[in-house]
Design brief:
344 residues, Immunoglobulin-like, five-stranded mixed sheet, 26 strands, rod-shaped, Ig-like_dom_sf, Ig-like domain-containing protein, Ig-like_fold, Ig_sub
Length: 344
C-alpha cells in the first residue's frame, strides 16, 4: 500500500509462490578407501557429500557422522565445508600419531534433515608396526649367538599383536626375539616372522619378514700332536693334540667340550696296542681333559696319564692318535700322527 494515495484508492497485492526443490544426497565417497599406515604417522580421511542441487551457505540441515567400527567418533571430524560448487560438501577425519588402536573400518554417514535415508561410505585403515629390515645374514661364525627382534623393540601389548617366528622348511615355531646359537645345522635356513594386528580389518595384509642365515664353512685344517713318543714314569704325563680350523669360531658363548653331544669341536682318542684300535675311555690310568681354545682357530685336547704303579695295565701302552671334526661333520675329520706311549 502506498501511504500517500487517497484513502479511497484500492490496495495492490500479489501472491508469490515459492517452490523449494527437494534436496537429497546423490553420492558419498571417502578417500582413500584403504590405507596401510605406519605407527606415529598421520592419516587424513576425506568424506565428500554430493547433492543433487546447489545449496546456500547454511549446511546445518545436513547431518554427518564418522564411525570407527561401531563407535561414533564424529567429534573428531571437521565441520562440513562447501567444496567448489555448492553441490559438494567435505568433512575430514584427521588421525595424528597413529597407534594400533586407530586401526579399523571407518565409515562416513550423512542424511538430510534427519531423514531416515542415510548414505554411507567406508574406508579401511590398516596399521603396521616397525619390523626388522634384515633379509639375509651371511657368514655367521660357529658359536655366535644371534638375536633377531622382529619388531625392533617396539613395545606392544600382546592382546594387540599376534607375532611368531617359524622355520620355513620344518615349520618349527619360535618366540620373539628369535635367538639362535650358530652351528652348521642352521646353515641356509630361512626364518619367517609373521605379525597380525588384531584390530586391523580382515582385508588388511599381514606383515611378514624373511631372514635367511648362512654359516661360514668351518672345518678342521690340521691335527698334530706335540710329541711323537712318550715314556710313562712315576709322575703325571700329558699328550696334547693341537687342532687348527680354517676359520675362526666364537668360543665366548659356547663351551668347547668333548663331553657334549652338540660340541662345535669334537675330538676322539684312539689307542692301538697291537690287538685292535680302540677308542680311549677315561680308565686304565688315562683321563681326557676338556678341549681348551688357545685362539679362535686353535684348540688343544689333552690326554693325562697317571703315574705308573704296579697296577698300571700293559694295555695303556701303544700308539695313540687323535681324530678331530667340526659339529656333525665326522666325514670331514682329520687324524693326527701316531704317538708311541711306552713304559720305562
Amino acid at each position: 500500500m502506498i501511504e500517500t494515495n487517497p484513502s479511497d484508492c484500492s490496495t495492490q497485492s500479489q501472491v508469490i509462490t515459492l517452490r523449494i526443490k527437494a534436496i537429497y544426497i546423490s553420492s558419498l565417497t571417502v578417500v582413500p578407501t584403504s590405507i596401510f599406515s605406519s605407527i606415529n604417522s598421520t592419516v587424513v580421511l576425506a568424506c565428500t557429500i554430493s547433492l543433487n542441487t546447489g545449496i546456500g551457505p547454511d549446511t546445518s540441515f545436513i547431518s554427518h557422522y564418522w564411525y570407527q567400527y561401531s563407535t561414533d567418533i564424529s567429534d573428531r571430524s571437521t565441520p562440513l565445508m562447501i567444496n567448489g560448487d555448492s553441490k559438494s560438501l567435505v568433512t575430514t577425519l584427521n588421525i595424528t600419531s597413529v597407534q594400533l588402536s586407530d586401526a579399523g573400518v571407518y565409515q562416513c554417514r550423512a542424511s538430510v534433515d534427519g531423514n531416515d535415508t542415510v548414505v554411507s561410505s567406508t574406508a579401511y585403515v590398516c596399521v603396521k608396526v616397525p619390523v626388522i629390515n634384515i633379509s639375509f645374514d651371511a657368514d655367521l661364525r660357529l658359536g655366535d649367538v644371534k638375536e633377531y627382534d622382529c619388531t625392533l623393540g617396539y613395545n606392544y601389548n600382546k592382546s594387540e599383536v599376534v607375532l611368531s617366528w617359524q622355520e620355513l622348511t620344518s615349520g618349527k615355531a619360535y618366540t620373539n626375539p628369535l635367538i639362535l646359537t650358530v652351528d652348521q645345522s642352521i646353515n641356509s635356513t630361512v626364518y619367517i616372522c609373521s605379525l597380525l594386528i588384531n584390530k586391523n580389518p580382515a582385508n588388511c595384509p599381514y606383515q611378514q619378514v624373511n631372514v635367511s642365515v648362512t654359516v661360514k664353512d668351518t672345518f678342521i685344517k690340521t691335527v698334530m700332536t706335540n710329541i711323537v713318543s712318550l715314556n710313562l714314569s712315576n709322575t703325571y704325563q700329558q699328550l696334547e693334540c693341537h687342532i687348527a680350523t680354517n676359520t675362526d669360531i666364537n668360543t665366548t658363548n659356547t663351551d668347547i667340550n668333548t663331553t657334549k653331544s652338540n660340541s662345535i669341536v669334537n675330538v676322539s682318542w684312539y689307542r692301538d696296542n697291537g690287538n685292535e684300535n680302540r677308542l680311549v675311555s677315561e680308565n686304565e690310568g688315562v683321563s681326557i681333559l676338556p678341549i681348551v681354545s688357545i685362539t679362535n682357530t686353535s684348540f688343544i685336547s689333552t690326554l693325562r696319564f697317571s703315574p705308573i704303579t704296579s697296577s698300571t695295565p700293559v694295555s695303556t701302552l701303544g700308539n695313540y692318535t687323535c681324530v678331530a671334526w667340526i659339529g656333525e661333520q665326522s666325514g670331514r675329520s682329520k687324524t693326527s700322527n701316531n704317538v708311541q706311549v711306552m713304559m720305562k
